[in-house]
Amino acid sequence: MTVTLGHVAVVGLGLIGCSWVKALRQAGCTTAVSGFDRNLDSMQQAQQLGIIDSYSEQLAEVVADADFIIVSVPIKAVRSVLEEIAPSLKHNAILTDVGSVKGSVASDVAAVLGAQFGRFVLGHPIAGSERSGVAAADADLYRRHKVIITPQPHTDTDALQQVVAAWQVAGAEVEQMDVVHHDEVLAATSHLPHLLSYNLVDTLASRHENKEIFHYAAGGFRDFTRIAASSPVMWRDIFSANREQILAVLDMFQQDLTQLRQHIEADDVTQVMGVLTRAKAARDHFSKILARRAYVEPMKTATISYLASAGRALSGQFRVPGDKSISHRSIMLGSLANGVTEVSGFLEGEDSLATLQAFRDMGVVIEGPHRGRVTIHGVGMHGLQPPPGSLYLGNSGTSMRLLAGLMAGQKFNVEMTGDESLSKRPMGRVADPLALMGANVDTADSGRPPVRIRGGSALRGIHYDLPMASAQVKSCLLLAGLYAEGETSVTEPAPTRDHTERMLKGFGYDVQVDGSTATVKGGGELTACDIDVPADISSAAFFMVAASIMPGSDITLEHVGINPTRIGVINILKAMGGNIELLNEREVGGEPVADIRIRSAQLKGIHIPEDQVPLAIDEFPSLFVAAACADGETVLTGAEELRVKESDRIQAMVDGLVTLGVDAKGTDDGAVIQGMGGDGQFGGGDIVTYHDHRIAMSFAVASLRTAEPIRILDCANVATSFPNFVELANGCGMHIEVVEEGATA
Ligand SMILES: O=C(O)C1=C[C@@H](OP(=O)(O)O)[C@@H](O)[C@H](O)C1
Ligand SMILES: C=C(OP(=O)(O)O)C(=O)O
Taking the model in full, what pTM does it have? Predict the structure, then answer.
């Protein structure tokens, strides 16, 4: 990027201004740099260090020839600087500042240079440190840091563009914001923390034996008070210039602090835990943002791809993570129960964590997860509170559809949003029957999220014949039925997973199941219980297919849920000739589990029985890989639901297999795949996953039998259902390298 700024003048030779100028000089954007500071030493030092070429004790002289003027002085000094330089400004000179408060600088500019003066661009770099002065100047200070520019309606476009470019040259990520909004946001994120930090140090240092505090208060004190070493003059000015906004957040903080004090006084440890766990979750999320692992506009998450190459025969005995469907439901029912529910084996994947966060947002105190343990302090059927904003459910269809049912029964309004993939998935299938029950549910165009539910509707029980075999829709209606007048019954066209029915019973709620119809009566209560979440058969499926297709393999997967509504993958693999044994079958907390031993076998193509489709609905991506390794043709029909999952899974799998040299064709409701047979190998290539976790993992499994490396793109979402997939896969014989590309702004 070539940026020509001409003669640059910097007024105020502190860390902020000097660092920027240093970066500009290094990039060759300046023809000359002059500097001014009230302090002669600083000017001399800046010249010696080559940050400025010239200085003068007369401010007017420093700016007289300048094309680009950086005002980098404490906020309250801006006005007098402007008054002093106004008469000497070159026609068309561009001015900008670096202050933490924009409203007061905007008024100073208007008062001194005129309300329509368009050459002053208000800016604020979110960087800096408690270090200060010329000597600390660092040309890299702004690299990958945000700079907020707050243009006004009368700001000249060319001046704005130059200032943006000058920041970009220094490596900054420039964002634009409205002046008032900036001051509100900064009051909360920067000004209040500084105020508290200064205040705490002052309180402790003045009331206690100083030596004791500074001697023993190592960790917490040091971390919390680092920023109290910042410049007092600068912060005095900020607290004064942004007074109103700071007072507003300070009041909010004081209220919350008073409440926390009350909880501690009353020894209400649950409420105290609520504050701590919510704060920890928020802080952990923030750490992810800093590491660019969380998606936050306008930052993109780091892109993760897998480079997968041929593996060896699989061996080992291990446990895959907890069942996603059961994990979601444990949070939902635990939150609405009376009493404390203890969950073990909880899936710490992004999907189930999205459900957990949603309930935290609605005021439920949830401890953990920590190594799969979660403690939920249930609030009872009517104890949820309105969330502070929309419920963001990430990639998780289950969260959104099941929550839609529960939210329909609340007194408050809720909006539910999701990521790009979830935002394309059909929600009319839950919104329509909920409306029949009397709920007030709105979706965006053609039934897509966001889903908005108005609270306070009186729900009435209905009978509903499900138009498709969907456990999510069934569960949504049963959960709404808990809040409805009378009976709600749902009849499904084919059996689907029945975890909701089982878990409701586990929480002491009466559910009648009669053939394909499940019925609940509204108005009951849930009683807390302990839940042992089995390993997820949907995650186990990748290893079942992997061991089946890789000659010489012999693995055992521990404690896998084998609920009869979930074992389609076992039935289908067995029908294809798979060597699968269920060992140590037992029941835990109302769900059957077993250890599953899989040995390699030459599979053969089959026409997959349609009654198995709902029982293996999430396992088809990996079953497509099994089919590609089989002898002969595999035909799938009756599986149109695959087209509305996280991606169109028929298309994504067929395209990927074709890329790897397999003869595969998609049909409206399934696919036809010609198996490569025993000696067949996949070719290499790039796989488009459409950010779908199951597509990514399925092609990783395929790589066991690849002749050339397979590059699998966009695999970050594997963390939605199977966070330690690569670790387990590589541990038992696969060969997957994770390639992470830096996030882009
Ligand atoms: O109820 C559940 O937990 C799920 C039901 C299925 O969705 P559908 O109900 O849309 O088939 C499945 O695909 C999803 O992964 C989880
Ligand atoms: C379809 C899936 O999940 P969901 O519908 O919850 O996004 C899945 O995990 O394969």
Answer: 0.87
Q: Which CATH class is domain 324-532?
A: alpha beta
Q: How many Å apart are CA 140 and CA 484, to the nearest integer? A: 61
User: What is the C-alpha to C-alpha distance for residues 713 and 652, in angstroms, rounded to an integer?
Assistant: 12
Which run of H or of E encompasses 156?
A: none
pLDDT tens per residue across span 676-729: 999 999 999 999 999 999 999 999 999 999 999 999 999 999 999 999 999 999
How much of the chain, in percent, has pLDDT values that exceed 90? 90
CA of 351 to the centre of ligand 2 (A): 9
651 annotated as ligand-binding: no
Q: Let me know if the fold of 305-314+534-741 is the same as that of 324-532.
A: yes
Domain borders along the chain are 6-177, 184-265, 305-314+534-741, 324-532
Phi, psi of 500 (to 5 degrees): -65, -45
DSSP code of 65? T
598-640 residue pLDDT tens:
999 999 999 999 999 999 999 999 999 999 999 999 999 999 9
CATH 3.40.449.10, applies to 305-314+534-741: no
Considering the segment(s) 184-265 as one domain, its CATH architecture is: Orthogonal Bundle (1.10)
Does this complex have an ipTM over 0.95? Answer: yes
Closest ligand by atom to 649 CA: 2
318: part of which helix (H) or strand (E)? strand 315-318
CA dist., res. 534 & res. 344, Å (int) = 9
Pick the CATH number of 6-177 from 3.30.70.360, 1.10.1040.50, 3.40.50.720, 1.10.3720.10: 3.40.50.720
Around ligand 1, the residues with Cβ closer than 6 Å are 325, 398, 470-472, 475, 497, 617-618, 641
**Residue corresponding to tokens 């878990």:** 503
CA distance 649 to 695: 7
Report which bound ligand comes closest to the CA of 352.
2
